[in-house]
Each structure stands twice: as C-alpha cells, then as structure tokens.
From TrEMBL:
Classification of source organism: Bacteria, Pseudomonadati, Pseudomonadota, Alphaproteobacteria, Rhodobacterales
FAD/NAD(P)-binding domain location: 151-460
Swiss-Prot/TrEMBL keywords: 4Fe-4S, Iron, Iron-sulfur, Metal-binding, Oxidoreductase
Annotated source species: Tritonibacter multivorans
Listed EC numbers: 1.4.1.13
Protein name (Swiss-Prot/TrEMBL): Glutamate synthase [NADPH] small chain
Gene assigned in the entry: gltD
GO terms of molecular function: 4 iron, 4 sulfur cluster binding; glutamate synthase (NADPH) activity; metal ion binding
Keyword Ubl conjugation attached: no
UniProt enzyme class: oxidoreductase
Xref: InterPro entries: DPD_II (IPR028261), FAD/NAD-bd_sf (IPR036188), FAD/NAD-binding_dom (IPR023753), GltD-like (IPR006006), Helical_ferredxn (IPR009051)
Length: 480
C-alpha cells in the first residue's frame, strides 16, 4: 500500500523558515526570513489535512487552489505545484511574502482550529515560485495570436499589472502609464525591502515587458498626457492608481519641520536603500531617521514599515503611538512582534494632541493617554481620553502613518463626469470594474479604499476577464 503523503500534522509540528536574528537584520534591508529547503517544504506541506471544505482556499481573495499545490509540493511535483499556483495568482512569490496569511488562508486553516498549528502556507507558496524562477519555469507571455484591441492602464501597481498580465496572455495590446520611474507601485516604493526585496518585483516587471507590455514611466495624467488622450488611444482604459493621499493631523504645532508623511518617508528610503538612488531629502536628513529620536503615529502595516525602516536607518530610539491596545490594532501581529524584537517600543492607548517645537523644528509629541470605552459604529471599542494623564514624548522626527485617501481624480484629470463616491473612490461595478463612463474601468484601492495587495490582484484579473468578454462580444457582432 502506498504511503500516505499528507495529514502529517499529528506527527509533525508547524515550522517556519529560519528568521535572522534581530541584531543582524537591523543592519540591512534584506528579507528577514530564510528560504525553505526542499525537504523542509515537503515536510511542512505534508501537514495539510486535505479537508473536504478547504477554508484556506475560500478565505483567500484569489481562491488559490492551496490544498492541491500543497499536495504536489509534498510529493515532490514542484513544477506542477507552480503551474497550479500561477493559474490563479499573477504574483504568488509576492503574496507569499507580504499577504497577511494570519488573517486569510492560515488564519482559517482547519488544523489550526483543532490546535495543531496552521500549515505554513505563505512560506511554501514563496518557496514554490522562487524555485520556479531558479529552475527557469517562469516564462514571459507568448499569446497564441495577437489581437487588435488596445487597453491603457493607469497605474503600475499590483492591480494594474495583474490586469496587464491577463490581457497580454490573450494577445491584447497593453500600455501601462505610471507617475514613477519604476513599475510596481507600492510593491516597489511602499513596502520595504526587508519584507519584499526589490529584485523580486523588478523581475516580474521585466517579465511583463518581455511579454509585450509597454510601460510609459514618469507620466503624470493631466500634465504629460490627458485622460481624454488615453481614452482616444485605447479601446478600454483601466484606472489602477491606488490611494496615495495621506490622512493628516490638524492640531497645534503640526506645521513644524520634522513632521513627515509615511509615504514620503518610505518612498525615499526604498529609492536610497534598495536602489542606491541619490535623493536630496535623504542625504540632507529631512527623510532620514539616522541619529534621531523617531515617533511614528499609527497602528497599521504602514506604521510597522516605518518603525522598522527607522531602526535600520540608525535611529537612536523608535516609538510607535497607537490609540487602542495591541489586541485592537489593525496591523499584522507578526510584524508587531518583529518590530519589538528589533527594538521598537510601542506606546499603546496613546494618541497625539499636538506637537512641541524649538526654532520651528519638532521637539516632541504631546500625548494623551486613552482607555477603551463602548464599541463604536464598527463594533470596536472606542478610545476615550484619560484626563490629567498627558505627557510629552521627545522626538526629532515624527512620521504620520494614519492611512491613505484617494486623490481628487475628477479635478486632477479635468474629468468632472468621472463617477466617484462620497469618499472619493471611483464608483465601479463589483466583479467587472466597469464605471458609468464607456470603456473605462477601475480596480484596486482606488475603488475599495486602502486595502490588501491580494485584493488588487483579484480586481485586476476579474476586470481583465470582463474586458476580454466585451471584446469577444463586439467581435462576434462584427462578424455576423
């Protein structure tokens, strides 16, 4: 009888790839987790219970066929595992690194619910695709036939690139427009290298280019080219700009120098530390934490990126203020633990009420202590001020990581008819991404608000499929 290759969770404990020590990882921007070796990947994949209703798959936005590629990995059929993974996910090696698996697939693993510890899905996913790259299994798109239709995509982030990949596979002519000098959006400039090394993103960009996607970089819509010109050039347009407008704090002292936005801080750090670019704001210290007391305001994943980046830049101290407690923070618990290991101090139940300054430069954050009261409209306990418990936290650099909002695209692009919600996001149909403007679609955060990379990938793929169906329907009518 053949040996059972799966259901080994009762005999084999959960194990993650080795994590570099905090002392060593503070010194660079390299990823902190090592790669699984083949034997370890097979061992950990074999823990999957192959359950009849795979909650890991149903709780993945892309509905990745996780049980099948775990089984293929466990039995040494790695090229098939890669093909299965790639069939539903444009960027599996990226999702394996940055997806919050603890809230999605792994957080809903059946064996986790039974007390055996979840299957290390993300680490295996990363291993499968990294191996595929090493073995040369990852190939550029070669469509069976070219099509005459053309699609313009505004935004080279994960949503736009996922749509570009799907459309090029079908032979559609694709042009991607982006304001930055490198494609990838937040994958390139928002997420630090210690979570996602940049060569991982650059090789995907190159693959898309090799497959026939045209990139127009350093292109600002409304300045370098109008939205109307893009519509005229293409049969369909996908808006995939993401949300980059930072939420602000209007309080005493907020105009002092040394109070900066998270997106500016992270973008400059990625350019300087991961690409070796010379950036004036980094060189002159404006967006550089070296030698400074840093305070980061916020409790999401962007805040975690900022505190851990500050440590690597050589800050003398790094503190994170969050108005709720640890259990109620929106960021990843795994990232919080990594930050604490690296020397970040978290001040829970603490909120800013203003800033002190000396000579126009920030000198400290006026902090008010909070307690959790009754649940708010979202069901979370609302923070309440504890009177008389204020204090000042010394700071040379304050980073605001308060979340992001959409830019005013109708005004920026001179498109008053572009349909937006009261929050400024674009109104688009669920599943297809279609807007009320003929031939104009929207995907990712510009529709959802600030969300996860994996949701942007899903939106891009779904919208590409909807556009292809519309092209096919038009072609069928024309042929009659």
């Amino acid at each position: 009888m053949a040996k059972q290759p799966m259901l080994k969770f009762v005999k084999i404990d959960r194990d993650m790839p080795e994590k570099r020590t905090a002392d060593t990882r503070r010194e660079d921007f390299d990823e902190i987790y090592a790669e699984f070796a083949a034997a370890k990947a097979e061992e950990q994949a074999s823990r999957c219970s192959q359950c009849g209703v795979p909650y890991c798959q149903s709780h993945c936005p892309l509905h990745n066929n996780i049980p099948d590629w775990l089984r293929l990995t466990a039995t040494g059929r790695l090229e098939e595992a890669y093909a299965t993974s790639q069939a539903t996910n444009t960027f599996p090696e990226i999702c394996g690194r940055i997806c919050p698996q603890d809230r999605l697939c792994e957080g809903n693993c059946v064996i986790e619910q039974s007390g055996h510890g979840t299957v290390t899905i993300g680490a295996v996913e990363k291993y499968i695709t990294d191996t595929a790259w090493e073995k040369g299994w990852v190939k550029a798109n070669t469509p069976l036939a070219e099509r005459s239709e053309s699609v313009g995509i505004i935004g080279a982030g994960p949503g736009g690139l996922a749509a570009a990949d799907m459309l090029r596979k079908a032979g559609v002519q694709v042009t991607v427009y982006d304001r930055y000098d490198r494609a990838g959006g937040l994958l390139t400039y928002g997420i630090p290298g210690f979570k996602l090394e940049k060569d991982v993103v650059m090789r995907r960009n190159q693959l898309l280019s090799d497959g026939g996607v045209t990139f127009v970089m350093n292109c600002n819509i409304g300045e370098d080219i109008s939205f109307e010109d893009i519509r005229e050039k293409h049969d369909a347009v996908i808006i995939a700009t993401g949300v980059y407008k930072s939420r602000d704090l209007a309080m005493p002292g907020s105009g002092a120098t040394g109070i900066v936005k998270a997106i500016d801080f992270l973008t400059v750090s990625n350019k300087a530390s991961n690409f070796g670019d010379t950036i004036e704001e980094f060189e002159n210290g404006t967006l550089n934490a070296n030698g400074k007391k840093v305070v980061v305001i916020g409790g999401g994943d962007t805040a975690m990126d900022c505190v851990r980046t500050s440590i690597r830049q050589g800050a003398t101290s790094v503190k994170c203020l969050y108005r709720r407690d640890r259990a109620n923070m929106p960021g990843s618990q795994r990232e919080t633990q990594n930050a604490e290991e690296e020397g970040v101090v978290f001040e829970w139940l603490s909120a800013p009420k203003g800033f002190t300054e000396e000579g126009g430069k920030v000198a400290g954050v006026m902090v008010q202590k909070m307690r959790l009261g009754q649940p708010d409209a979202s069901g979370r306990q609302a923070p309440e001020v504890i009177e008389g418990a204020d204090y000042v936290e010394d700071a040379d650099l304050v980073i605001k990581a308060l979340g992001f909002e959409p830019e005013d695209l109708p005004t920026l692009w001179n498109q008053p008819d572009l349909p937006v919600t009261r929050w400024g996001t674009i109104k688009a149909e669920f599943k297809t991404g279609a807007t009320d403007m003929d031939g104009v679609y929207a995907v990712g955060d510009i529709v959802r608000g600030a969300s996860l990379v994996v949701w942007a990938i899903k939106d891009g793929r779904d919208t590409a499929e909807a556009i292809l169906e519309k092209f096919d329907a038009k072609a069928a009518v024309a042929a009659e």
